[in-house]
Backbone:
């Protein structure tokens, strides 16, 4: 299997990257439609943001369950079932009659989409280790990080010709495509002899051992709170860009999507330089950049600075996420080959759980202030740095 993966490395990365991108598409594609959804359902901005919270909760809890199941039953079968559920939930969202049911369906949609994220990462750990794991994961990030660039653009393109309903129909088509790819293109990477027993106590012991691993826990918490800041950005910018700065849905999509380029730059720097600079060093550099950009976002929000200053500060912040995501994944997963699905699940649960709590706070002061966004991004950046310094970094090694 390894030789086959090496011969088809790019094609394999494209396939896994598509599954990994399902989460960002589920989150980002409907963002330009927030004002329209608010008007159609006759509800408030906070209620629409709650649909994002529900999706994030589904993505987080789903990873915990789907990752553990993939260690027991293999990678293909849970992934195929999840893609069928994603297809059904997407179509159901399109015909939801009220905001309450829409929120519930977004939870189901996120839960199903989680399988694409967590199982694709577990497959990478099945196939690679060491520096090769870092390099391949950076290639996976290159592909999957195109999703934040493409998803809002695709969403704004769809609503040029139809309503927000068309966005969820398009997501259903994507779910159908991924179901077909799972059946006909994806090989099983976890042999039966390497699967863990179908034992709830053993699964709980696996999670307990992960939580006792300082390096794993430190990386998971540091990256978790960083991504929680990203979710605050995702939840807040549709209203900040459009309501405060007067951007059109199409301009919002371009500004929001441009940060996909920043993610790509950050992750590729780590992937290409991993043979020269350690993951620990990259992790610390990325966190320091996050703190600096967090200060800039906070100052722009407090002073109601120009749009370009906010966009530039967020671009830098998102780039730091690209660096820390790639580095933290390798640091956290390097000693977890025996329970890669559970480890990947826990890595996924923490940011989505924190993000689901934090993202609604962006709108706590209303639709016409960016101050909560600045406070959240600065706070999460500082907290992530403290988690890394307290649990992961080895002081005697300096930056290494």
Residues:
């Amino acid at each position: 299997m390894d030789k086959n993966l090496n011969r088809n490395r790019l094609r394999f990365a494209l396939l896994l990257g598509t599954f990994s991108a399902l989460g960002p598409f589920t989150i980002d594609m409907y963002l330009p439609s927030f004002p329209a959804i608010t008007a159609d359902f006759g509800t408030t901005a906070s209620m629409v943001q709650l649909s994002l919270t529900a999706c994030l909760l589904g993505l987080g809890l789903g990873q915990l369950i789907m990752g553990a199941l993939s260690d027991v039953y293999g990678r293909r079968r849970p992934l195929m079932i999840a893609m069928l559920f994603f297809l059904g939930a997407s179509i159901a969202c399109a015909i939801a009659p009220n905001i309450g049911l829409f929120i519930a369906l977004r939870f189901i949609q996120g839960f199903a989409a989680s399988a694409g994220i967590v199982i694709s990462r577990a497959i990478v750990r099945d196939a690679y280790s060491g520096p090769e794991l870092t390099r391949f994961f950076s290639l996976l990030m290159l592909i999957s990080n195109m999703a934040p660039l493409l998803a809002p653009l695709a969403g704004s393109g769809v609503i040029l010709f139809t309503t927000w309903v068309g966005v969820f129909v398009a997501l259903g088509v994507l779910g159908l495509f991924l179901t077909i790819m799972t059946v006909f293109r994806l090989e099983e990477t976890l042999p039966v002899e390497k699967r863990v027993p179908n034992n709830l106590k053993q699964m709980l012991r696996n999670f307990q051992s992960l939580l006792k691993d300082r390096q794993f826990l430190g990386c998971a918490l540091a990256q978790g709170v960083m991504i929680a800041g990203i979710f605050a950005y995702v939840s807040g910018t549709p209203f900040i860009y459009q309501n405060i700065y007067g951007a059109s849905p199409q301009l919002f999509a371009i500004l929001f999507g441009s940060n996909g380029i920043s993610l790509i730059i950050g992750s590729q720097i780590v992937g290409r330089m991993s043979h020269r600079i350690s993951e620990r060093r990259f992790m610390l550099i990325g966190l320091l950049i996050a703190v600096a950009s967090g200060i800039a976002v906070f100052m722009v929000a407090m002073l109601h600075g120009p749009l370009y200053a906010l966009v530039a500060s967020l671009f830098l912040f998102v780039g730091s996420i690209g660096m820390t995501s790639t580095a933290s994944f390798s640091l956290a997963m390097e000693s977890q080959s025996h329970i890669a699905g559970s480890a990947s699940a826990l890595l996924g649960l923490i940011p989505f759980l924190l993000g689901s709590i934090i993202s609604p706070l962006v709108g706590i002061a209303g639709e016409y202030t960016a101050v909560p966004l600045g406070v959240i991004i600065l706070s999460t950046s500082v907290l992530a740095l403290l988690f890394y310094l307290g649990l992961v970094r080895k002081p005697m090694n300096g930056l290494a």
Summary: The longest helix spans residues 214-244. Residues 39 and 45 are 9 Å apart (CA to CA).
